[in-house]
Amino acid sequence: MKVLVTGGAGFIGSNFIRYIIKKHPTYKIINLDKLTYAGNLENLADVEQNKSYRFVKGDICDQKLVDQVVEEGIDAIVNFAAESHVDRSLYDPKTFMQTNVLGTQTLMESGLKHRIKKYIQISTDEVYGSLKEGDDPFTEKSSILSNSPYSASKASADLLVRAYQKTFDLPAVITRCCNNYGPHQFPEKLIPLFITNAMEDKSLPIYGDGLYIRDWIYVEDHCRAIDLILHKGKVGEIYNISSNVEKTNLEITRMILAYLKKPSSLIKHVKDRPAHDRRYALKAEKIRKDLGWEPEVSFEQGISLTIDWYIKNKGWWEKVKSGEYLEYYQKHYIKRENS
Ligand SMILES: NC(=O)c1ccc[n+]([C@@H]2O[C@H](COP(=O)([O-])OP(=O)(O)OC[C@H]3O[C@@H](n4cnc5c(N)ncnc54)[C@H](O)[C@@H]3O)[C@@H](O)[C@H]2O)c1
């Protein structure tokens, strides 16, 4: 099988490429990535010499380039490429619409033209909007009620994928996963930001009261789910993916501080972001029942593996946290810490 993975230099995409090369050594993998601030080829240093892997630098919005790659006999496209950080979508929504919506459409056009056998859209639980405490978790049938420009762009793409499947018979499947954590996650997201800040004895800027709830999954469990969907997922379906681990941001922060033996005085409550979703939680019965998927990593195991990875890979995140990221952090987070 020849698989085009887009956004493979980012967090989940790089973990997926590593997973798939190990699991299916005969597959050919092409990684198309624009290398935005979030894309980092160092995430794939251990596989770049592998004969079954090839990197192509480029934008998923570039129809000519995407066509060239897909016409090489691609069987399946797994689309991870996206602008993925909610906070950034508040400052620059247009880039989110371009990549997340128009990029998706460009990939699907090529997929149709070259008759690929499967298109997987990696979406998110954020498209469902927010739950209150006590509400039932979202199912695949829940309404789409996005609250941030990021989730609106992902939801728009989901609707477009549905339309291409219904109208043009694109063999498409949509996945909606909860919050991922694990190695190689860009340190602007809660878990890696707080691990690395704590290691540097910097404050941990927690939004509002810190009681926002997210549903967490270890990235490798997510990669296993996508692999199953690639082979057995039913065209036209949406699959929620979740390990049903609901935790408040404050609980996670305390776990990180305890593991690193750092004081809770590093926690700094900062002004909340607008339209901050209070709680996400997913029901993932369909993938469990129909495809036999089960998560294998508990939160306690996963968070230890993750913190240990950041301890061992200080060089990786120190480099990542300088440059463009530092500029962004100073402009937005520090402004919030001081407000
Ligand atoms: N991180 C999570 O918790 C989570 C949860 C559910 C779903 N998702 C979805 O999974 C996907 C991957 O998320 P992630 O956390 O790995 O993101 P990430 O920000 O770490 O990586 C995104 C990758 O996409 C690339 N990219 C961005 N714009 C591009 C473009 N125009 N053309 C080609 N490449 C481009 C970047 O260079 C980067 O390598 C996203 O679609 C996201 O919406 C993420």
Quick summary of this structure?
The protein is α/β, with parallel strands linked by helices. The protein is built from twelve helices and twelve strands.
How would you sum up this structure, described in words?
- By secondary structure, the chain is an alpha/beta fold.
- It has two domains: 2-181 and 217-241, Rossmann fold (3-Layer(aba) Sandwich), CATH 3.40.50; 190-213 and 245-271 and 299-337, UDP-galactose 4-epimerase, domain 1.
- The chain contains twelve helices and twelve strands.
- The protein has helices at 11-23, 63-70, 86-91, 93-113, 149-168, 190-199, 219-232, 249-260, 285-291, 299-312, 314-320, 324-337, and strands at residues 2-6, 28-33, 53-57, 76-79, 118-124, 172-177, 179-181, 204-207, 213-218, 238-241, 246-248, 267-270.
- Helix 5 (149-168) links the parallel strand 5 (118-124) and strand 6 (172-177).
- The longest helix is centred in the N-terminal third of the chain and has 21 residues, at 93-113.
- It is globular.
- Nicotinamide-adenine-dinucleotide (NAD) is lined by residues 6-7, 9-13, 33-36, 38-39, 59-61, 80-84, 99, 103, 122, 124, 154, 177, 179-180, 186.
